[in-house]
Amino acid sequence: MEESTELREEWTLLLWTTVAFLVPVLITLWCSFQRPKRKVQLKDLFRKSKHGWHYTDLFNKPTYCCVCSQPILQGAFCDCCGICADEECIQRADRILSCKEIMTQSQTDGRFYHQWVRGNVPLASYCAECKQQCGNQPKLCDYRCVWCQTTVHDDCLSSLNDDLCDLGEFRSVIIPPHYLYQVNKLRRRHPDEYSKLAAVCGSGWTPVLLLANTRSGNNMGEVLLGEFRTLLNPVQVFDLSELPPSKALQLCTLLPPGSVRVLVCGGDGTVGWVLDAIDTMKLKGQDQFIPLVTILPLGTGNDLSNSLGWGAGYAGEISVEQVLRNVLEAEVVQMDRWKVQVVSKGNYFRKPKVLSMNNYFSVGPDALMALNFHAHREKTPSFFSSRIINKLELDGEQVTLPSLEGIIVCNIGYWGGGCRLWEGMGDEPYPPTRVDDGLLEVVGVYGSFHCAQIQVNLANPVRLGQAHTVRLVLKSSRMPMQVDGEPWAQGPCTITITHKTQALMLYHSAEHTDDDDSSASEAEEPSADHIDTASNTQETVTVS
After folding, report:
1. Domain boundary among 69, 85, 102
2. Over the stretch 314-347, which tens digit does the pLDDT of each residue have?
3. Where are the alpha helices (DSSP H) in 343-498?
4. Which of 204, 325, 340, 499 sits 20 to 30 Å CA-CA off 316?
5. pTM, whole model, 2 decimals?
6. What domain range is 140 assigned to?
């Protein structure tokens, strides 16, 4: 009898354990299957809303509904103001709960009333009134201001000493809604008027615009857009998949000249896209509104970001708050930009191919990897069997070349996803690279295996010299080429690279690269003597 009872109890325990395990798994699977379907069904509703709704569910982001106060199984959250709503309550939330107003009139001294959102307060927050912890209570017991991020207990809200919001820690980078309200009322839009309006924002006001490419690298762009919309005025945050940088940067023309910093979230290609848009601003006579540019690397190579001290890639290891602090502390440097002109042999009367270069130009094995020519190389073993470069001139002087398969022309210190190409390894004294000296570093490689050895610090490239002018002539083979990671196949041609302009960039002096050699980092950093206005001096680098 006792054995039968024990056996029954064991089976009962096993049954409940199985149920306890299977139920969450089944709910998770159900939510996973439903998520794409629900996103499509709610898309039209989200598009018509004044909130920046994004789909969420119990397992994606556990939250409480700001309308009915119940846990959200399937619903949405606004990445601007932080309001959360169950699926059945979304339309009602649209009617009764306001989002961040990007433009509104201030109350006094450039400040306005707190805009409180109830519930879903971040964990480990602290009440501004009683200084005790917030965010550790169930349901909707605490409040958060959508502008200054101040948190307060429900019971402490009525006794809060100051009802006016000062925009919090990041007031110096936020575009206040009252500033845009005043700009909209101006009869004469002039830079002097913007400076007068900015006086109420404080002497250290340096608004930051965020331009994110959601297609770059590790697909963190979408997450960053939401996090920065929460911290900043949503009007400052741009999705480059929806609006090109040329249009996003026009906001700079409504802000005090020389005050704006642009944070580009993307790869080196995205940075080049933004810098091209800034060049267009110069052509329009908007030089005084040119912003300083900094990078949050989301791409795959990120050599430009690495060269400017911002690291080889961002995967959320530091908070967006710390990212903004780093941007404010960064130093201003000038970076050379180059124009690459490709004229195909026998087509001198056609319009040449013209590209902008920030990082490097290469022809040969390095570009082959970018263009994914591996299958072609297997079919054509003689593709690199002979010298492809007829002639190389540095500053007008011809250079005697060994039997090279490729040439790499660098403007920055890093190449190939984190390799310091010019300085290399060993004790040979080579001048350090700089981004602001108007010089290009030219090296050669023997083949793809040599490239691989260089990337793992087992070999050095063939250093051909530093120059203002480079002239390169290619043979009749059809060769892979690349500029800043953008590859193409090119026949016999003459390539001319000329100094285009200088871009004002921000350099992060703290070491955030994968290179542990601090001396190499210091070598890359331009000195203060070079920090002034951008130069329009035309220097020529010719690759023929």
Report:
1. 102
2. 988 899 999 999 999 999 999 999 999 888 887 7
3. 365-371, 374-379, 448-455
4. 204
5. 0.83
6. 104-168
